[in-house]
Every structure is written in structure tokens, then in C-alpha cells.
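Hi support team,

I'm filing this because I wasn't sure whether my run with nicotinamide-adenine-dinucleotide finished correctly. The job status page said complete, but I'd like someone to confirm that the output block is well-formed before I use it downstream. Pasting the exact inputs I used:
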Amino acid sequence: MASGKHAGKVAVCVGSATGMGAESAFRLASEGASVVIGDINMAAAEKLVDRISSAGGEAVARACDIANEDAVNALIHGAARQFGGLDLMHVNAADLSLGPKDGDALSIDLATFDRSVEVNLRGHLLCTRAAIPLMRERGKGAIVYTSSDAAKTAAPFQFSYYVTKAALNALMRHVAIRWGAKGIRANAICPGVILTETVMRHMSDEVRTDALKRVPSPRLGEPKDIANLVSFLLSDEADWINGQAISIDGGSVMHG
Ligand SMILES: NC(=O)c1ccc[n+]([C@@H]2O[C@H](COP(=O)([O-])OP(=O)(O)OC[C@H]3O[C@@H](n4cnc5c(N)ncnc54)[C@H](O)[C@@H]3O)[C@@H](O)[C@H]2O)c1
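And here is everything the job wrote out:
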């Protein structure tokens, strides 16, 4: 059997073909988990599986649009059938293509708002509904949702992104309080600016320099920062951490 802190565990990573999700899935596999990657970008998902396999890990890729209930159920139940159960889940998907159309509460077209809800929130609910009964069969489980510092702050633009990420934190807290006593933990990570390929594509050097000025730490985030936190939160080392929306942002948003 694989060694590492996730040895013997089965993990589903949804919306994890690229960026911080991919780095987290790679980390879980390198620490011993059998990983099932569900994403709409199968080319990238297959590439990630090759990378994991070359490093000695176990992973498979499955096509899954998180907005589609049948596809989500097939992904998560299929993972449990293939690997004998479900222990860990990272739900990371967001429709980041909506950004330019995501205006303020007056200007946003409702189709953009609805799609944002469908992927960033309802899709996470679908994953949750499929996963919890399987985790209950195991007697415990851990879920991490990728939220954002946007959930804790405000902006005059990207209305639906901020709203759906805030609601996602509420979903996470619901899962934590409803099923915590049954051994299921749920937490959300709230990244600040993480230099993933998607972000790099849309961020000019000027915007990046500006973003860095708002971070107390001397650099912006990298996907491996997220992988560190996701792996920890899904591990038994985090057994007493439940219902938290944890910022990982070099100190951009401080709470106390
Ligand atoms: N990069 C940042 O600065 C930043 C900051 C805060 C929060 N986040 C959040 O982190 C997550 C990942 O962002 P990223 O920067 O790594 O971008 P990314 O584009 O690399 O990751 C998004 C992933 O979700 C997948 N996806 C999109 N729609 C999907 C759908 N309908 N069904 C299944 N999968 C779908 C994409 O194919 C991709 O693999 C997102 O939830 C994003 O909101 C990112």
C-alpha cells in the first residue's frame, strides 16, 4: 500500500484539472491517496493523471460538469465503487469565464448570475449530497471547498462571484454543524491572489504589482501554498478543525 499521510484514503477532487486544484490533487496522490479527478477539461485532467502516475501515485480522470447532477453522482459514486469507498473531497470548481460579464447588482444579466450560482454553489451542493452518505458509510470524512477572500469582503463589481463564494461558506458551515457529530468535517479555504495559469492569463503586470501592494507578505500566492493547506485540512492532523473559512492570502484579510 502507498505510504504518506493519506495512505489508504480515497479522494475525489472536483474542478481540479488545472491550477490550485491540480496541485492539491497531485499532493494528495503523492501522500498516498487514490485520487479521482472530475472536470470539464479532460485534456488537462488526463495530463495531470499522467503527472501523478509518473510520480508513482494513483489517479484517474472523469469527465464531470459540476452543474449536472447525474454527472456529479456518476463521478462520486463511481469513485467509491472503483476504490472501495470515499474518505476525502476537495470541491474546487468555479466558472471563472464569467468574470468580464459579472457586473454590479443592477448591471449583471441574470443568466450570468444563474450560471455562477449553478457552478460555484449548486454544484458544490450536488457534490456534498453525493459524498456525505458515502462518508457516513466509512464512519468519517473530510471536505474542503475552495471559496475565496471575496466571501469575506466586498467589491463594486463581480457581484455574483462574491455572493456565491459567501454562500459557499454558509454551505460549508451547515455541513460542519449538521454532520460534525457523525465524524464528517467541512472547511473552506479562502485564497487571496494565487498565481495560477488562469489568473496569469487575465492579470497584467501592472495589476499584479498593485495586488502585491495590498499583501503584507512579500509575495503573491502560488498553487503549492494551497496544496499545503488542502492536504493538511483533509488529513487527520486537522481532526479538530471544523466549520472554518480559512484565508490563505499572505495576510490580505485579517480577522481576530
Ligand atoms: N487564483 C486565484 O487567485 C483565486 C483566488 C481566490 C479563489 N480562487 C478559486 O480557486 C479555484 C480554482 O481557481 P484557479 O485559479 O486554480 O483556476 P483554474 O481555472 O485553474 O481552476 C478552475 C478549475 O475548475 C474547472 N471547472 C470550471 N467549470 C467547471 C464545471 N462546470 N465543472 C467542473 N469543473 C469546472 C476548470 O476546468 C479548472 O480545472 C476557483 O474556485 C476560484 O474561484 C482562485
